[in-house]
Sugar ABC transporter substrate-binding protein (Anaerosacchariphilus polymeriproducens), 299 residues
Amino acid sequence: MSYYEWGTDYIVANKAFKMQIDEELKQPSKVFGATYQDLNNPYFIELNQGIKDSLASKGDQLIVLDGRLDIKEQIKMIERLIDHKVDAIFLAPVDWIGIEPALESANAAGVPIFNVSTPVYNQDMVVNVIEFDNYDAGVQNATYMMELLDSAKIAIIERTGVKASDDRVKGFLDTIAGEDAIPVMEKILKEHPEINVVYAVDDPTAIGAIDALESAGKIDEVSVFSIDGSPTAKRLVKQGKMAATAGAAPYTLGQVAVQEAYKYFDGRPIEKIILLPVKLITKENVDDYGITDWQVFDL
């Protein structure tokens, strides 16, 4: 059985870009652009919805382009948004360093970039960074793991080129540092059948690991820890197939990002870095968060 959640129809094909612009832009007060790592990831769908709804409430519009985990394509998308003179861009970069040419283009054109969810390397090139506390998400998972288990052999599944992933791993490793008999392995189940913990940097990755564990008949032997708090992950927590997920509220993040954009355009002071909290979701408290929708935190 597969637990993957697939994205909906947000992707704008390159050849259809101009047609979408002509159809959607009805002379709103402002037109914003947005491009994310991957809109097959439910987290980014929810983040996008928070941004879109918040802009719509002010009569503004959003053009959404999917990075599809391809940094070269994401750079082209940002250049197209610049060419169409959007007022600002919300960006979750596919590669935190590789995105810099697009940031240079936006800066040269005077188009402000609001960096959401995962930071860019050179933060002087964006207005600000709005993200969840990814380091603390790793800390919370590691702390709970050490409460559950006397010892662990751990496989860590991460994403390269993504600062949020690095922070999530660092928080986890810093917390277990100094603990006895906890070797950290980065290879997967077939090569290391002795592992009893999988720590994944996001829910889609963890869900894929759970699929593999079920296929191998090892789901009861391995504790899976993750980050995001998606509805599917929460259902797996409730079923006992996932030990914990550090819950974020991407819709709330989208709302905060839009609030920051309007502060900027109003000339009000804004903070350079905004860290939103994460809340560890386990079998003990999963019902408090519900299993059918994403959690929404109070602003």
About this structure: Residues 248 and 278 are 5 Å apart (CA to CA). Confidence is low (pLDDT under 50) at residues 1-12, 180-187.
